[in-house]
Amino acid sequence: MDKANPEWAKDIPCKNITIYGFCKYENDGCIFNHGNESSSSVSSRPVLNSSLSSKFNAKTAPSFTPSKALNVKNTSSTAIKAEKVAKALQSVADQQPSVSSPLASHSAPFSSSFNPYAANFTPVGSAGAAETSSSPPSAPSAPSAGHTGFNPYSVSGGLLASADELNPLHPSSGFATGSPGPFTQESSNRHANFPTIYPPSHSILQYHLYAPDPALHLKLPLKANERSPEMLFIPNDIREELLKKNQAALQVFPSGGNLPEIVGDYFGLVPLEFHNRVTNKDRYQGHQNSLYKVFSNFDGKIYIMRRIHDVKITETAQISQPFQRWKKLVNPGVVEVRDVFITRAFNDASLCVVHDYFPQSNSLYETHFVSYNPVPISLDLLWSYLVQLCSALQAAHSSNLAFNNICLDKVIVTGHPGRIKIGDSCLHEVLHFQEDIDVTQQQQKDFVDMGLLLRDLSAKIIGSGQDVNDVETLAVDDQFRLVLQYLLDSSNAEPKSLEKLLPMFASKILPVTSALQSYVEYTESILARELENARLFRLMCKLSFIFGRTESRIDINWSEAGERFPIVLFYDYVFHQTNESGKPVMDLTHVLRCLNRLDAGTSEKIMLVTPDEMNCIIISYKELKDLIDSTFRAMSQ
Ligand SMILES: Nc1ncnc2c1ncn2[C@@H]1O[C@H](COP(=O)(O)OP(=O)(O)OP(=O)(O)O)[C@@H](O)[C@H]1O
């Protein structure tokens, strides 16, 4: 080999790429092949690395770019600092190929901030596998178990998963192989074109920019009185879930295109169905349908609007009567209907039904069958679903209503622990208005539909037989099997009713209610912890507004003899503590304690010492609070 002439190495793959996925000397003289077409040209990064570096661009990330809107005096120096930070972060991002969200790793180039007007729109809270990365709903057994957490490093969901593995219909996904699942040939064909486009491109937040939980081996056993910083904040999995929900809720669709700007009282239509599945022909009387997220001009809230294309409705009663009946139905197991109207905004006579919107919700089918990471079904979860569905049925049937649409596609999972709601209510009644339909018969059909839904789900439990229709082969306990047999019994010997059904599993209702209650208490306790955040944040802002301004360095009031000097010392006392050897002490508890006392203006006194330790001031929190308030007022006048 001729070491003087690097030509000999141009076709040999660089080992750094093989081992680490990237070569940091690629642009710095490394003579081996980095996967470029021509090794002699200026090399581009290998695929893995390029997706990473494009995902995180600290320079363009708004968190690191000073806002132009702010009229800050030292804008240029801030910008220079921000650029330095950005550069440093960029280089860190470039050097860490493994730090990536599993979503982002398969996405188009990432724009670190959410840009609702980006032309390249892809849904966040929409249908399909799109939402499958969110934390799965859990069995109702324990609230903490519900927080399995989003593991960005997991192999199946992380960088190591190939595109094929992420395809729900790919054999390796476990969906197409093994047990054929509960679906008949027809139903699996119906979903055969489910897209593999997820994850979407631009709208993924950099969740890693927040402090992650420490690695397990660093989680030291704490004494009863000790707290780690993570324990002081909202748990990461809940924070991430709420962020994703907010992001999905606020995402808008680029204006222009075929969609009307305003439909009735609603605007900002965002299509929610981004899948290629063929709609069940019998549904909606064979009419085509579309689902949109919409913003209400009336109350500013977000809803979903289902449009049934090209319907003929001649009398207003067809709309108003079913709507009046269904809008009274309020139950946690039902997606409430808010509005029904006919519009010509789509250039046809479309029927629009408006329902409550639950960001990031997925149908049961998406959650358990076609997601990248299907939520496993357990018996506990099935009992929970059964109890919730019965509650919804009880509410509807007692109002002389029937759903007519209980199926895997129309029941959505809205949150932990396995909370579900029957969607799409009221529509069936509008479309079949004046048809000679017996509600009691429809209610009987609801029972059977519920049985079919639970049977299909049971078939996904590990150990269930291949024949979906055979309840005996399902891996459920005898009690659940009896419930299924009762619901699916077609002999019509006696009408099915909740009075007969509920006693069959009365003992199972209590654990479900306990789990839901525990979860409520858990989230309430988290909420209580966060209660003070806004107050402390405002206090921090107030302190930061007045502390460290340029004028304070020349103003006599801020000098050692000045009346505002205690503020300078207090700021140091709170944030700039050092230990005996001069090392910074960053004790969050100390900060919170001081700020809380300052906010309350307690009479407790503290001793503030000058850095040279030559002078000290003894002052109460009340006096400090008054001083800070008066300074702030003087500044804002
Ligand atoms: N109330 C809701 N809030 C938020 N998202 C919803 C709501 N209802 C449905 N979705 C989302 O919209 C997706 C599409 O719902 P839709 O009812 O159109 O299912 P579908 O399988 O496309 O049915 P169809 O074949 O009848 O069109 C659901 O999978 C879910 O992710």
Q: How would you characterize this protein structure?
A:
- The structure is a single chain.
- A hairpin with a 2-residue loop joins strand 1 and strand 2.
- Among the domains are: 1-44, no CATH class; 533-636, Orthogonal Bundle (Helix Hairpins), CATH 1.10.287.3700.
- The N and C termini lie far apart (78 Å).
- The radius of gyration is 30 Å and the shape is extended.
- The protein has a six-stranded antiparallel beta sheet with strand order 1-2-3-4-6-5. Strands 7-8-9 form a three-stranded antiparallel beta sheet.
- The protein contains 19 helices and eleven strands.
- The protein has helices at 15-20, 47-55, 75-95, 163-166, 185-190, 236-250, 317-326, 364-370, 379-398, 427-431, 439-458, 478-488, 498-501, 506-530, 533-546, 550-554, 565-575, 588-600, 621-636, and strands at residues 262-263, 266-271, 289-296, 302-308, 337-343, 350-356, 362-363, 411-415, 419-422, 605-609, 616-620.
- The relative contact order is 0.08.
- It is 35% helix and 9% strand.
- Residues 37-203 have low confidence and may be disordered.
- The protein has 637 residues and is an alpha+beta fold.
- Helix 9 packs antiparallel against helix 11 (439-458) and helix 11 runs antiparallel to helix 12 (478-488).
- This is PAN2-PAN3 deadenylation complex subunit PAN3.
- ATP binds at residues 306, 356-363, 409-410.
- Homodimer. Forms a heterotrimer with a catalytic subunit PAN2 to form the poly(A)-nuclease (PAN) deadenylation complex. Interacts (via PAM-2 motif) with poly(A)-binding protein PAB1 (via PABC domain), conferring substrate specificity of the enzyme complex.
- Pfam families: Pan3_CK, zf-CCCH_PAN3.
- GO terms for molecular function: ATP binding; poly(A) binding; zinc ion binding.
